[in-house]
Amino acid sequence: MKLAYWMYAGPAHIGTLRIASSFKNVHAIMHAPIGDDYFNVMRSMLERERNFTPVTASVVDRNVLARGSQEKVVDNITRKDREERPDLIVLTPTCTSSILQEDLQNFVERAQLEAKGDVMLADVNHYRVNELQAGDRTLQQIVQYYIEKARKKNELPEGKTEKPSVNIIGISTLGFHNQHDCTELKRLMADLGIEVNQVIPEGASVHNLKTLPKAWFNLVPYRELGLMTAKYLEQEFGTPYVDIAPMGVVETARCIRKIQQVINAQGAEVDYENFINEQTLYVSQAAWFSRSIDCQNLTGKKAVVFGDNTHAAAMTKILAREMGIKVVCAGTYCKYDADWFREQVAEYCDEILISEDNGQIGDMIARIEPAAIFGTQMERHVGKRLDIPCGVIAAPIHIQNFPIGYKPFMGYEGTNQIADLVYNSFTLGMEDHLLEIFGGHDTKEVITKGISADSDLNWTKDAQAELNKIPGFVRGKVKRNTEKFARDRNISQITVEVMYAAKEAVGA
Amino acid sequence: MTVTQQPQALTFECETGNYHTFCPISCVAWLYQKIEDSFFLVIGTKTCGYFLQNAMGVMIFAEPRYAMAELEEGDISAQLNDYEELKRLCLQIKRDRNPSVIVFIGTCTTEIIKMDLEGLAPKLEAEIGVPIVTARANGLDYAFTQGEDTVLAAMAARCPSKEKEAEKEERNAIQKLLNFGKKKEEVLAEESEYVKHPTLVLFGSLPDPVVTQLTLELKKQGIKVSGWLPSKRYTELPVLEEGYYVAGVNPFLSRTATTLMRRRKCKLIGAPFPIGPDGTRAWIEKICAVFGIEPKGLDEREKQIWESLEDYISLIRGKSVFFMGDNLLEISLARFLIRCGMTCPEIGIPYMDKRYQAAELELLEKTCQEMGVPLPKIVEKPDNYNQIQRIYEQKVDLVITGMAHANPLEARGINTKWSVEFTFAQIHGFTNARDVLELVTRPLRRNNSLKDLGWDKLVRDEAKV
C-alpha cells in the first residue's frame, strides 16, 4: 500500500480509452463498476467535445460479483453493435475486472459471432502498466489486428506511395496540445514536400489502417505513445521511423535532418538544409529571441523542469541549450522509461529526478528555489505556494491547458509559443531590476509559506520589520534562507543581526 | 400530444442501470470539509485516485485531509499483510495530521478481495489510539451521494449514547454557535422560547450556513435542534438516546435513517425534504405535527418566498424538465420545479427507497394534481442511451444531467444543467430556494441571450444508418 495524494499518470484503462475514443467509429466498453466511466466527463469537459464519448460500461455490480458477468458483457457488446454500428468495439478491462479474472477473451469471441463490427479485448494489465504504457500498447494492438486482418484477406496494398509520405503516429484525445501539434506537423510535412499518408489514432478510421505500410516512414512525435506501433511496422514492413520530437529549434532541425536521411535512403533526393536555415534565422522568432537582449536577462537564471519524458526532455534542452537558462533539476514521472530520459538530459542539467511522488518533487523545488518552474499542473500549484512562477508543459493538465487558440509545442510555430511561455514565466527583466534598485513596491505582510509547515522560529519585531522591507518576490526566499541558517546553528530567536549574518553566510 | 387520462398514481420503472454517475467515494470531498478534524483514507486503486483527483479539481491542491491508500499487486495477492500496511499508513497520518478520526472508505477492490476493514478497524483503533470509522462507499453497491449515506450510517454508531455532564457545555456546537456572545442568563431566557418537546436530532451533511438557517427556521416554531449528524467536528457528534426523534434533510440518507431507527432506537420523522419553499414548509409542518405544535407564520413565509422567486419562475413556467438521474435529489427537485409550473415527463434516479422517501413521493403526487400536470415516470437505474432517445423524441426544454452528456446535448441544441452542481450548491431551506432556480434557469437565461445568433445546433446531422 502506498499513501498517495496525487498521481501523474492515470490508470491503464484511461490509456486504452484515449486510443479507442481517438479513432472514428470505435466504441469502448469498460468492464467496470458504476462511476468508473469518469473518462467521459474528462473528455467532454476538458476537450469540450461536442459528441458523445464512445465509451460505455458493462456494469459490474453485486450480481456480477456473485455469479459472474455471464451474458451481460456479451449482451452489452452486441447491443452497442446494433445501436451505433461501430467498426470496432474494444472491451476494456479495469482494476476491478483484473481481480475478478473473468475470461473476457471468451466474451469477446462469443460477441464476435453475432456482432457485425469487430470486437477485441484490450491487452492491458491494470497492476503492471499505467495510462501511457497502456495507450501505447492498445494502439499497437489495434494496428496489428487490422494489418493481420488485411493480410489474411490479401488486402494489404503493395509498395509505397509515389511521393515521399509519412504516418504521424501518436496524436490522441486528451493529449497535451495534441491537436495543435498535429496541425503544425502536417504543415511542416507540407513544407517539406512530404505527403501525410495517415494520422493515427486521432480521427483515423480502422478501415484505413491497412494502408499504413504505404508510407515511406513513420513519425513518432511523442516518446510515450506510438513507439510500439512504429516498431511493429518496422519489423513487419521495414518502414523506418523517426522518433525525434521536433520541439525546440535544434531538435526540430535534428528531426528534419533525420527525415531527410530516411527518405533519401529510399531514393528521394531532398536537401532540407536551406529550409532549416531559412526557418531558423528568419521565420521562427525563437532563434532571434534567444539572441535578443531580452533573453540576456534570463542568462543563468535557475529553472526546474518536470513532466512526461517527451516534454520534460525537450524543455530541458531548450532552456539550457537555446536560452542559456540554468536547469538545476530535470525530472520525469515516466519511471518505466527512465534510462531514456537520463540519457537525453544528462548534459543539460545538474540533477535528474525520476519520481512519481509529488511530495518529493515539491521538496526538490523548495530546496532549489528556482526562478521559474516548468512542470505539470501539480508543479504549478507548488509554485503558487512558494511564490515561484510556473509554465505548464505536460499532463496532468486542467481545462485551461486545452486552449481554443492555436498553441502548438512542436515545429517552428511551437518554438515561438515556447519562447513566449518561457519569457512570461520569469519575472520580466526590467521590472526585476527596478524592483531591486528601488527596494520593491510590495509592502504586503509575509504571506509566503514554505513547503514545510509554519516556522518554529521566533522573529523579533525589528527583524520582522526588516524582513518586510524586502521586496515581496524575494521575501520568502530570504525568510527561508535565514531560518535555515538559524536552524543549522541552533539559534531560536531571529534578530536583525542573525538576518545579516545569514545573508553574509548564504547570500540570502 | 393529446390530452390523455392522467394516471392516478406514480409509475415506477427499472431499466438496465447503464447510467453515468460519480463514484460514491466522491463524498470524501465534501465530508472532509464538513468534519474539520477528520481524515479520510480511501483504500483502493489508481482508478479511485484518478477519479478523485480529477473530479475534485482544484480542491486537491489545498492539502486536503484525504488520501489514497493505493493498493498494489502485493496487496491484491495477499503477499502483504493488510493490517500491517494499514497500520503503517495510519501512523503516518497520525503523525502528519493528527486527526480526531480516520475514516476508511472501502472501495470495489476491497470488496472483491474481501478485505475485512470492519474487522481490522477496531484492532487498529486500539493500537494507534485514533478512532477509525469504516464506510463501504463502493461503486458495486452505491451511486454518488449514497457515499455520504454509508459514512453517516457508520458515524451513527459512534454517537455517544448518554450525555456526560461535564461535556454538556462543550458538545452542542450548533447551540453554541447560535448563542454566540450571549451571557448565561440570556441563554436560559432563550431556552424558554422553545416549546417542550422530545429531543430532535437532524441528519445529513450541509454547509454550516445552511445548518444555521434550518436550525433558526425550526427555532421560530419553538423547536430545538439538539444535535446534527454530522457535526463540525467528530468530537462533537450528537448524543443519541433511545426514543430521540430524528429527521433527514437529504433524500439519499436511507441507510442512515435505518441505522438510527434500528440500532439507536430513534424515531424517524418521515417528511418531505426541505428543498424549495414548498418542501421546507412541508418539512417543518411535519416535524411540528409530530411534536403536536401548531406551526405559525409558515403560510406567510412561504408566500413571501414564492413572490420573490417570480422573476425566475416566469422563465420556466410551462417548460419541461427531464432528469437523467445521478444524485438521488431528483424527486425533491422535480417536485419543486413542478410547483414552479414546469412539467416533468421523466425522473431518472439511481435508487429509489420508497419508504424513506414516502412523504416526498406523496407530496410529488399531490403537487402534480394541484398543478394539473401529468405524473412523471420514475425510472430507477436508468439507461442513458435509451434516455437520450426519449429526450430527442419528447423535445424536452431542459435536461438535468451529468457532465458526460451535457456538452454533447448542448451541441445538439438541447438546454442542460449539470446535475452535480445541485449537490454542491446550497439548496435547502426557504433562504436558498432562489439558488436552486438560479441554477435551473441559468442555461435558459444564457441561451436566451444567444438565441438570435442561429447557433443552436453545432453538430452536423448525423447520417442515419
Question: Could you list some keywords that capture this structure?
Answer:
heterodimer, A: 508 residues, alpha/beta, five-stranded parallel sheet, four-stranded parallel sheet, 22 helices, 16 strands, 14% strand, globular, B: 465 residues, six-stranded parallel sheet, 45% helix
Mean pLDDT of chain A comes to 91
Stretches with pLDDT under 50, minimum 5 residues of chain A: 443-453
- In angstroms, what separates the terminal alpha carbons of chain A? 41 Å
Q: Could you say which structural class the secondary elements and strand pairing of chain A correspond to?
A: alpha/beta
The biggest beta sheet of chain A reads: 5 strands, parallel
Total strand segments of chain B = 14
End-to-end separation of chain B? 28 Å
Mean pLDDT metric of chain B? 90
Largest protein-protein interface:
A-B, 53 and 66 residues
- List the quaternary state of the chains: heterodimer
Number of helices, counting only DSSP H or I runs of 4 residues or more of chain B = 20
Q: Note the overall shape of chain B.
A: globular
What gross morphology of chain A would you assign? Answer: globular
- Binned, the helix content of chain A reads 40-55%
Q: Which parts of chain B are unreliable, with pLDDT below 50 for 5 consecutive residues or more?
A: none
Give the % helix of chain B: 40-55%
| Main sheet properties of chain B | 6 strands, parallel
| Cα-based radius of gyration of chain A, to the nearest Å | 26 Å
Based on CA atoms alone, the radius of gyration of chain B comes out at 23 Å
**What strand line-up does the widest sheet of chain B have?**
1-12-11-10-13-14
Topology summary:
The complex is a heterodimer of chains A (508) and B (465).
Chain A (H helix, E strand, L loop, with lengths): L1 E3 L7 H11 L3 E7 L5 H9 L8 E5 L2 H6 L4 H13 L3 E6 L1 H6 L3 H11 L3 E4 L9 H22 L12 E7 L6 H14 L3 E7 L15 E3 L7 H11 L3 E2 L6 H16 L8 H11 L2 H6 L1 H4 L5 E6 L1 H15 L2 E7 L5 H8 L5 E4 L3 H11 L3 E4 L1 H10 L3 E3 L18 H15 L3 H9 L20 E2 L1 H9 L2 H17 L4 E2 L1 H11 L2
Parallel strand pairs in A: 2-3, 2-4, 4-5, 6-7, 6-8, 8-9, 10-11, 10-13, 11-12, 13-14, 15-16
Chain B lengths: L10 E4 L12 H8 L3 E7 L1 H10 L10 E5 L2 H4 L5 H16 L3 E6 L1 H5 L4 H12 L3 E5 L9 H11 L11 H4 L1 H6 L5 H8 L8 E4 L4 H12 L5 E5 L15 E4 L5 H9 L4 E2 L7 H16 L6 H19 L3 E4 L6 H10 L3 E7 L8 H14 L5 E4 L3 H11 L3 E4 L1 H9 L4 E3 L1 H5 L8 H18 L15
Parallel strand pairs in B: 1-12, 2-3, 2-4, 4-5, 6-7, 6-8, 8-9, 10-11, 10-13, 11-12, 13-14
Helix pairs in contact in B: 7-12, 13-14, 13-15, 14-20, 15-16
